[in-house]
Design brief:
There is one protein chain. With 209 residues, the chain is mainly α. The chain has one domain. The protein contains nine helices and no strands. The chain has helices at 2-23, 26-37, 49-56, 61-88, 92-97, 100-122, 128-136, 141-166, 170-208. α1 packs antiparallel against α2 (26-37), α1 runs antiparallel to α9 and α3 runs antiparallel to α9 (170-208).
């Protein structure tokens, strides 16, 4: 249920910013983009490429990359504090701290976390597992935020540069936005119904036995 609530919030924010991009002034677009990116790397699923490319069509790519990456650092800071608080209220943290496997993982992860966070922040490789691993391992907050900044800045710069150089038509970006929103939702629905069918099949098999 929580996942669907967060998804609904993400979709609402995505379309709200989309409306601002179509109807707002240039500077309201920039402020809206910064606010959007300040929550875009948290547990709320928000697609970012269409907006980064769109903003690159009207603003300097360096400014777009700076607004996007700094906004992501704000989101990362909030997420870091929030997840640490949540873990401290559950038994998960104490179990992890006493787990020999997790202690060994934390030791090795801390030695390569900075590079991993920068690399996954820049490339299409999923960033979330490494973010959560860093937080669970108690990775240094300053280094964590610096890695987010160094990974996201060049990523957003290249996206904004793409928009600046090729001036991609807005309707193509709208299609991309709809796809980035639709595909994860469809995936969630498929997993949900697949899981329900499997549970139903197990229950039926148990009853027949």
């Amino acid at each position: 249920m929580r996942k669907w609530i967060l998804t609904a919030i993400g979709i609402s924010l995505s379309f709200a910013l989309g409306y601002l991009f179509l109807e707002g002034s240039r500077y309201s677009q920039l402020l809206g983009f910064f606010g959007y990116m300040s929550v875009a790397c948290t547990i709320i699923p928000l697609p970012t490429p269409p907006y980064v490319i769109a903003l690159g069509k009207v603003f300097d790519p360096v400014l777009v990359a700076l607004a996007g990456s700094v906004g992501n650092c704000i989101a990362a800071f909030v997420e870091y504090r929030l997840l640490l608080w949540i873990f401290s209220k559950t038994e998960l943290q104490s179990r992890l701290e006493t787990s020999r496997i997790f202690q060994r993982f934390s030791y090795y992860f801390r030695r390569m976390a900075f590079v991993c966070l920068i690399f996954t922040g820049f490339t299409p490789i999923p960033f979330e597992p490494f973010r959560f691993a860093a937080i669970l391992a108690g990775y240094n907050l300053t280094l964590y935020l610096l890695a987010v900044l160094l990974g996201r800045f060049p990523r957003y710069y290249l996206m904004a540069l793409l928009g600046d150089r090729f001036q991609i038509p807005t309707h193509y970006l709208i299609i991309l936005l709809i796809l980035l929103i639709t595909i994860p939702v469809v995936g969630m629905l498929v997993r949900r119904y697949t899981s329900a069918d499997n549970d139903g099949g197990v229950a039926k098999h148990t009853t027949e036995n």
